[in-house]
Amino acid sequence: MTLAASILAGDRLALARLLTLIENDSDAGRAALDELFAHTGRAHIIGVTGAPGTGKSSLVNRLALHFRAGQKRVAITAVDPSSPFTGGAVLGDRVRMRDLAGDPGVFIRSMASRGSLGGLARATAAVAQVFDAAGFDVVLIETVGAGQAEVDIARLAHTTLVVEAPGLGDDIQAIKAGILEIADVLVVNKADRPGADQTEKALRSALELAHPVPHVFRHHGVDLQVQAPGPAAPAPLWIPPIHRTVATAGGGIAELADSIDRHAAHLRQGGDWAVRDRNRLEAEFDSLIQAKLVRQFRNRVPDSQYNEIIHNLSERRISPWQAVEQLLGREE
Amino acid sequence: MTLAASILAGDRLALARLLTLIENDSDAGRAALDELFAHTGRAHIIGVTGAPGTGKSSLVNRLALHFRAGQKRVAITAVDPSSPFTGGAVLGDRVRMRDLAGDPGVFIRSMASRGSLGGLARATAAVAQVFDAAGFDVVLIETVGAGQAEVDIARLAHTTLVVEAPGLGDDIQAIKAGILEIADVLVVNKADRPGADQTEKALRSALELAHPVPHVFRHHGVDLQVQAPGPAAPAPLWIPPIHRTVATAGGGIAELADSIDRHAAHLRQGGDWAVRDRNRLEAEFDSLIQAKLVRQFRNRVPDSQYNEIIHNLSERRISPWQAVEQLLGREE
User: Could you identify which of A31, A35, A264, A266 might form a hypothetical disulfide with A4, taking C-beta atoms 3.0 to 4.6 angstroms apart as the criterion?
Assistant: First the structure.
């Protein structure tokens, strides 16, 4: 029985082994991925991103428990690009495992960046595919931080949650500007803390700037979406709802999960599910192509020539661009 | 007079124009960069990184004022990879400008990510080179966040400052693990807030784990570096000092700046200055090669073929890896 076949048959040890092979970028892992790929495309991939200190891990934990209560099989992968050298977010695993450990409908895997960011994104895409093929209904991808890297990884998802929390300082405001445009659902976690009102208000203002067309009214905690009057609107717009949660105590989780489900239904209804799936595969393909082009190039250029170029750069004899043209020509 | 010549002659408008050309990745910008490259290699490049809310911007501002008082010319570039869509950290500029505006020995430029992370890192490298060639003695590169992207950009620097602050939540702990290994100088900013002692203590413990060989003693706020006994130690080790600052009020800035200067002297003395310079150029060269390989590939493959591949991926007829092999062959 191949590794892939064992995974399709529900073997958790085989699953764990493949994830390790993928993290190590091995040929055996690649072969199993090829075999599993035809079985992908069913899971709901949910990205959860936000700055440090927002309580993402607790939130992901609670969401997993909620989905489990609904008999869904849930896989979690926590991506930690901030530990490039130490490798492995073992502590994260242990903390998270407490409530979910022993449940055969849950699988948790932390990933630490071993090499480049591109490598991490590729590995995350592969891990999500394996979970998808293995029959998990929901795949939660948690990313620490809120930089471009996290944005790129969040793009893997069908549904992207952006998590904020009160009182994290002034820089937060700047981060929201970019991240809001990838958010499908916004969460003010730690909503029992002082400042939750201001955080929600700031998010709402930013949201109205980012989605200027429809008017969003808020009434007793429920978002009412009202289309602006205009020529016959085609597909209904998705206005990212804002949820307040207290993940450590489970507050607001059911409502949040409901929004996530509604977003999936919205994507399927309007055809955007297929669009996001295609975009994800295209991004993965581009990333793999890029990595292979670089490997082929490095195998083609002798070390002595490469080192001479770097030496000439250090001596300021040629510029980086001139060095590139020497090797790859002027034309694009 | 070429654009590069104008910049070498001290023309600030020409400098601003070139930075825009670089951000737009234009051919004219590339030509000017080639011309300026021979004039680079003198500036002290200082990276300042840390999580949102640590007060990096104020710290960078204060450091700039301090270096100015010492008659050094200072350039600042704030890299904001978290705003991938909105473009331009204009507000940041305005806030920052208050104390430094009108000083001809200061130049400030914010950069927002327009495209890929690789693109941003390449643009940041180019901007630092332009400042270097234009005769700035110090180039401060500020990065928002503390993910792998920020680590990569911080690697551009001769000296990397990692900034922490008290009370930013539990995730901070996890981030420090990886980031500590690139830190040359550690800063506990907002040190007048409750929890500064714990933050410093946590940093010190983590630091001792990351640099296990020598013993670090702290005495009246001064780090005494004591080599562990052993066979004749070659170059003196650099143990990252930990500084407490209150950037908004200027507290601790002089001592911090002194550590930064000592680090530069340490690098020059041990030959590591040249090593870091070389590593930086190698990283830039690799990134440019990669970008060009991808462009050449996309110009070689007809859109129809590319789209067919993506379609086959969406239909799960071939896996991403199989698609790559179809296009680029099996062998590396």
Answer: A35
Whether B124 and B23 have beta carbons less than 8 Å apart is answered as: no
| Residues in chain A closer than 8 A to B309 (CB atoms) | 285
User: Residue A186 corresponds to which amino acid?
Assistant: L
Quote the CA–CA distance of A15 and B3 in Å, as a whole number: 58
Most A CBs within 10 A among B142, B289, B298, hence the mutation to make, goes to B289
What is the pLDDT, as a whole number, of residue B150? Answer: 64
Chain B residues whose beta carbon lies within 8 Å of the beta carbon of residue A324: 285, 288-289, 292
Measure Cα distances from B248 to B82, B99, B162, B189, B331 in Å. 24, 12, 17, 9, 57
B99-113, B218-232, B261-275 — which one is most confidently predicted on average? B261-275
All residues at 6 or more sequence positions from A61 whose CB lies less than 8 Å from its CB, including other chains = A96, A99, A100, A247
In DSSP notation, A229-255 reads S-S---SPP-PPPEEE-BGGGTBTHHH
In this prediction, residue A115 carries a pLDDT of 55
**Non-local CB neighbours of A34 within 8 Å, separated by 6+ positions:** B319, B321, B322
Distance CA A146, CA B150 (A): 11
* A168/B170 touch (CB, cutoff 8 Å), yes or no: no
Could you tell me which residues are beta bridge partners of residue A246?
A251
- Tell me the chain B residues in contact with residue A293 when contact means C-beta distances shorter than 8 Å: 290, 293-294, 297, 328
- Sign of the CA dihedral A298, A302, A303, A308? negative
pLDDT digits (tens, 9 = 90+) for B31-40: 999 999 999 9
The CA dihedral of A288, A291, A294, A295, to the nearest 10 degrees, is: -100
What distances in angstroms separate CA A232 from CA A208, A238, A268, B11, one per listed residue? 22, 16, 21, 55
Test B285 with A310 for CB contact under 8 angstroms: yes
**Measured between alpha carbons, how far is B232 from B242 in angstroms, rounded to an integer?**
27
Percentage above 90 pLDDT, chain A: 53
pLDDT in the model for residue A181: 74
Residues B229, A114: Cα–Cα separation, whole Å: 33
Residues A56-87: tens digit of each pLDDT: 888 999 999 999 999 999 999 987 654 433 33
Q: Rg of chain A over CA atoms, in angstroms?
A: 22
Tokens 């003196």 belong to B236
Stated pTM of the model: 0.77
Interface ipTM: 0.81
Confidence check: pLDDT of B1 > 70: yes
pLDDT value for A177: 54
Give me the numbers of helices (H) and strands (E) for chain B, helices first please. Answer: 13, 9
Q: What does the pLDDT look like over B161-174, one tens digit per residue? A: 988 888 765 444 44
Alpha-carbon distance of A211 to A235, in angstroms, equals 15
H helix and E strand count, chain A: 13, 9
